[in-house]
Every structure is written in structure tokens, then in C-alpha cells.
Amino acid sequence: MLHPGDKKPLTILAAAVAVVVVAIAALTTVLVLTDDDGDAMPTVSVQAGDSLERVAPGYWCSVDLTDCDPVDPRSVQQLPQNIVHIAAPIGDPVRVTVPPEVADGPWWSVAQYATPRGVQRVVEFSPSDTLYTKKFLSEPDAVLLGIEIWSPSTVFQDAPQGVESVDGEILMRGTFTIDTVPDGFTVGNTTELPDVRR
Question: Smaller CB count within 10 Å for the chain: N or C?
Fold first, then answer.
């Protein structure tokens, strides 16, 4: 049998239990939502003119290619692409910011330009943990047509001696593709020029 003095401590105890139950439910919800976000593909941020877009890769794998979404690049003839069009006005810079999943390792940017002599790719290497944002210029004599970001895996194909193999190829864990052709622009000279490497 409860005495009048016992009711107050029991009420306080019941309120404390209710707060703990609500806190546990809230924490569980946060953990579930965080886990779902952890499975999402990384995105690069692209700013051109007044537009800011997030671009997901066509596919994404763990660095050793043991976990890939939606496919392992070794299992298909044609890799899936997710090409996002963001018109880059001539005369304005385009800024691309890569996520930590890309910048933590080495990565490449491949920019394609329409020039009076033809179409030329500029391939630039960025070492690990050195650069997150890169600026690309679109100018009248070098109109920016597109940008790809390549994030390499640690897996080599046709490379029996690993890195030392002459004919081997590093497989990419993911590629991000941005079409930056300005609105209304057409390429005058489609001759493919040799790549420029930086």
C-alpha cells in the first residue's frame, strides 16, 4: 500500500523513465538515418555562373573494389555514367569541389576544351589530401566543354607486376561527369588534339 509521501518520488521516477525512453528512441532514429546516409554515393559540388549542383558518380566502389554500387567496373563492358549538364558561361570560372572520399586519395581532373585548332583534353593530377576545390576557366579561345573527376582504386588490371607492370591499368573506383557546354554553343573544329598533362 502506498503512503501519501510515496507518490511524489514515484511520479518523479516515472517522468525520468519517460525521458530516458524518449531519448533512446531519438538516438535510435538518428543512428538509423545516419547509417542510411552513409550508404549514399559521394557527390562533387559544381558551381558555374549562378548554378550550384551536386553530381553523383555513375558508379562508386570501395578503394579495393570489394563493394561497388551499382556495378563492379570489372564486370561490365560499358561503365554506367551519370552525366549532369551545367552550362558554363564563356568568361566565367567553374569551380569543382570534391568530397573527402575523393580528396583523401590521389585523383585526376580531365577538362575538355574547344579551341580554334580542335578539341583538347587537359589532364591534371592532384596528390592525396592536397586539394579539394579546383577552378576551370572557359574562355573564347578555350571553351570548356566538360569535366570528369577520376578517383582511382588500388586495383590494377592486366598488371602481373602491380604498379611496376608496363601495360597495366589502374581501375577507377568512380567517375564524376559534368557537361559544361555553354547554351547555344557548337564546336567549330572537332579535330582531336593530344592530351595536355599537368
Answer: N
